Amino acid sequence: MSQTGKPVWFITGCSTGFGRELSKILLAEGFSVAVTARDPAKIADLVADYPETGLPLALDVDDPAQIAASVEAAMKKFGRVDVLVNNAGFGYLAAVEEGEDAEIRALFETNFFGLAAMSRAVLPVMRGQKGGTIVNISSMGGVCGFPGIGYYNATKFAVEGLSEAMAKELAPLGVKVLIVEPGPFRTDWAGRSLKTPKQAIGAYTETAIARREAVQAYSGTQAGDPARGVRAIIRAVERENPPLRLVLGSIAQDVISARTEAFVAELESGREVALACDYPIDETPAG
Length: 287
Hints:
Elements: E1 8-11, H1 17-28, E2 32-37, H2 44-47, E3 54-58, H3 64-78, E4 83-86, H4 101-129, E5 132-137, H5 150-170, E6 175-182, H6 208-217, H7 226-238, E7 245-248, H8 250-269, H9 271-275
Parallel strand pairs: 1-2, 1-4, 2-3, 4-5, 5-6, 6-7
C-alpha cells in the first residue's frame, strides 16, 4: 500500500475514455495513481490538484524505453505498483481485404504487444511484493467477431488468450488478472480515435462497411456510462477473489451470452466427430 494506505494504480492511455475516467475517480477517492499518456499535456488537468498522489507520465506503450522509464518513475515516487491497468489502445475498422499492412501492425503494436510489454515491466515489481492485480482492457470484441472489425477482434482475442495464461501462471505468486470486456461506451473509441481504411471496397457494403458506418454513427450515444463502468472495475479489483472476466454493459452481456450459447451448442454437435479422432483404446501406440 502507499503512504495513504490505499493501493497504487498505474494506468495507461489516460488522455480519454476509461483511462481518463478511472484516473479521475481514483484520485478523487485518495488513491495514488501514475497517470500516463503519449502527450502529458492531455492529462495535466487530471493531476493538477493531486501533487502528492498523482504522477503524470509521458508513455507510449509502443516504446520500450518509455515503458521502463515510467515504471521506474512510479516506483521512485510511490515505492510500489499494486494495480496495472493496460488500457491504451485504439480501434481500426476494416474488412480483412481492406486492411492496410502498416495500420494492422500499428494496431497490434499498441493493443497487444504494448500490453504485453507493460505487463512484463511491472510483473517483477508485483512478484517482489508478492501481490498485485493486472487489469487488461479487452472488449466484447475479444469474445465475438464482427464484420469489419476483424483486425481489432484479433488483437483483443490475443489479449484474452494471453490474460488467461497469465492468470494461471501468476495465481501461485499472489498476482491476479482481471480481463475487462466492455460493450459500446461513450468514450472516444468510435470517435476521433477510430481508424478506417483509406480505400473502401464496395463488395463489402452490406457487411464491413455497413458495420463501420453504424459504429461511427452511434459515437456519443452509446448505452455504456464510462463512470459506472470504471467503478465496476474498481469494485472488482477490491474483491478478495475477483472474477477472471468482467463484462461491462447490457449490450456486451447480451452479445457474449448469445455467443457462448451458440459456441456450446456447436461444440456439442461435433462431439461424436471429435471423439472419433482419437486412437481406439486398444490401438494406442506404446510410449
